[in-house]
């Protein structure tokens, strides 16, 4: 995978961004589309452009996607020298951009591409004036040497080992049949997931309605920080 894109590393360092074609296979893309529909039915009051990390923290498919080895290999390739393969890869945030027709934001990629940009690159999106929904997924990887000062942020290790004293890492979400989005090999997910023992009590809960309400409350608290408003109750 990385050999196919290694010739673009210099372009990334020169321009601050790069677009990689045909990274994700069609089957996983279809699962992504179905997953977004699942989330919008599960959290109908949360706008599609605000499917943020409070949901990710509790969603096994989301974490399955952002831990895909193809993506992590590209992070190691393009993240150097800040992300070092022998130090691992962490993540501090991820969210969907999912805008309905006439309101959504345009996206540079199509459905099997990946764009990578440096955080210092100025970037924005215009409104979606088309008749079709447009969706994208932002993934914010960091080196495990980077400390996230917001203790409420669901920081996760994606690959490698964490560094003692830096960040409070969360477990990868547990798959719970009948509650979570069913995806390929979801039955084996719980054997693969990374576990942080002090975080596991969260995934022992079965009060799913209460959990979903807490997730929505956190999502709208985050939206409020961005200047948005919660829907009327």
From TrEMBL:
Taxonomic superkingdom: Eukaryota
Q: What is this protein called?
A: Phytanoyl-CoA dioxygenase
Q: What species was this sequence derived from?
A: Rotaria sordida
């Amino acid at each position: 995978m990385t050999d196919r894109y290694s010739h673009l590393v210099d372009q990334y360092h020169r321009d601050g961004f790069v677009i990689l074609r045909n990274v994700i296979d069609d089957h996983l893309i279809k699962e992504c589309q179905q997953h977004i529909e699942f989330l919008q039915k599960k959290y109908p009051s949360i706008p599609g452009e605000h499917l943020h990390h409070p949901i990710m923290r509790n969603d096994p498919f989301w974490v399955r996607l952002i831990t895909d080895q193809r993506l992590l290999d590209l992070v190691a390739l393009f993240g150097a020298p800040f992300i070092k393969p022998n130090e691992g890869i962490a993540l501090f945030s991820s969210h969907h951009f999912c805008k309905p027709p006439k309101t959504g934001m345009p996206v540079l990629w199509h459905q099997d591409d990946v764009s990578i940009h440096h955080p210092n690159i100025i970037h924005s999106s215009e409104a979606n004036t088309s008749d079709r929904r447009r969706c994208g997924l932002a993934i914010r990887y960091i080196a495990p040497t980077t400390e996230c000062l917001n203790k409420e942020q669901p920081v996760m290790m994606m690959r490698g080992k964490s560094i003692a004293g830096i960040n409070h890492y969360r477990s990868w979400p547990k798959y719970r049949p009948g509650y979570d989005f069913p995806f390929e090999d979801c039955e084996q997910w719980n054997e693969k997931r990374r576990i942080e023992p002090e975080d596991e009590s969260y995934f022992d809960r079965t009060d799913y309605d209460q959990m979903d309400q807490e997730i929505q409350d956190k999502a709208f608290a985050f939206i409020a920080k961005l200047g948005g408003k919660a829907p009327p109750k």
